[in-house]
Hints:
The protein is an alpha+beta fold and 474 residues long. The protein folds into five domains: 90 residues, Uridine Diphospho-n-acetylenolpyruvylglucosamine Reductase, domain 2; 119 residues, 2-Layer Sandwich (Uridine Diphospho-n-acetylenolpyruvylglucosamine Reductase, domain 3); 117 residues, Alpha-Beta Plaits (2-Layer Sandwich); 92 residues, 2-Layer Sandwich (Alpha-Beta Plaits); 39 residues. It is 37% helix and 20% strand. The chain is built from 17 helices and 19 strands. The strands form four sheets. Strands 12, 13, 14, 15, 16, 17, 18 and 19 form an eight-stranded antiparallel β-sheet that branches. Strand 8 and strand 9 form a beta hairpin. The chain is globular. The structure holds D-malate and zinc ion (ZN). The site of D-malate has 9 residues, from helix 12 and strand 19.
Amino acid sequence: MAGPLAARLRAALGDGAVLSDPSDIAGYAEDWRHLYRGQPLAVVRPSTVEQTAATVRICAGAGAPVVPQGGNTSMVGGATPSGDGTAVVLSLERLRAIRAIDLVAMTMTVEAGLTLRQAQEAAEAAGLLLPLSIGSEGSAQIGGVLATNAGGNNTLRFGNAREMVLGLEVVLADGTVWDGLRQLHKDNTGYSLRQLFVGSEGTLGVITAAVLRLQPGVTGRIAAFCALPSVDAALVLLNRLRAWDAAGLHAFEYMSGQSLDLVLRHIEGAQRPVAGSDHYVLIELATGGDAAALAGLESGLEGLLAAAMEEGAIADAALSRSEAQRLAFRRLREEHSEAQKRAGASIKNDVSVPIAAIPELLRAAEAACIAAVPGIRVAPFGHLGDGNIHLNLVQPEAAEAAGFLARSDELMHVVNTVVRDLGGSFSAEHGVGRLKTGLMEEWRGGPELRLMRAIKAAIDPAGIFNPGVIFPPG
Ligand code: MLT
Ligand code: ZN
């Protein structure tokens, strides 16, 4: 029974825009990791910004919480409604126009429901590059990507989502539309309000459109898959690559032997392109030049890898000789989340430390986790080039999933103790969501959390947007 609020929403937006049948709303009620199952009062799918604003106005008038939702790919339950049947999920999926691409300013203005991949493809068709790349880009939508300040594979070269945002359009808590879709590369006029909404995880407003900064287009890419004798060797290799071609280096991704083995075991057609090892990296380089530039990149990388091999910094390496091979290397990296999901229950630790501390992080965290749970599969991988490792823990082969998951908090604490000692963060790119609110007081308590609470109270005084996310209860 959805009640009078759903009826009011239907009257304002039309029947097709409001779902309340349990079978229609099931997919919006649960996160993809199956960690949280909520019970929304209704799911609203506006087709225009005005309808989005009307939804917020009506919900605010009824005191109903609003949970903005994009592709529902959160790793931390950030877009799942509560289970008490009071919240309205506001899905942006129908708001997916490309409003403009400006070749001179090198920007694109896109609506929140466009998937990241659709936005990348539109930029590419215009000869430009939207340099944000994450595993879930086929489903993740621009609004969610910005609301969570997504990171991904190209952060070492282009920064996080935040760095790409020049302007935003946002529906505020009273239903006002803030049109901040400025295309300016410089705009020093007081507080940067758009940056408040980026990374706010839907707790301050509903992003409906954005102006994104693009980069010159890429005409060719190559990749190398390397087996390394140690993680320390990965840092040596990273420095060599940067010294040689920092602008061309778009990704430097780490995979532990344990983690790649899960991909080889659980992902159809996955094949290791180099000799077996405990440590691997995937290197991606790109150029906007002609065929000769690409050939130069390829021979330069080949020379660099050969020299590194001679010095013992690399045990084995394979260079992509075709686009199909490059994509196959990339798939070996992108399928880690899926492989871990198929391998059983897993606990995700999306952590970052200063890059030089990564070897120590991996050694200390692995030893501490094995001491706590003998047989645990410590399967780290991730964005080594920017200091962000997914220090994921997969249940021991014979263990029972529920029993392992019951130890989540304890095992996250084991990892986070090491992270903290190394000056890191407990959430590098996935956000806080519902999953990590319990850590906020300990890690961000004091002036930081006080300021965050003050900002929340000023922008969303009635607390209608995404309650239960970011802030610890109370
Ligand atoms: C990735 O980089 O593949 C995801 O952010 C990681 C994860 O599954 O923890
Ligand atoms: Zn990641």
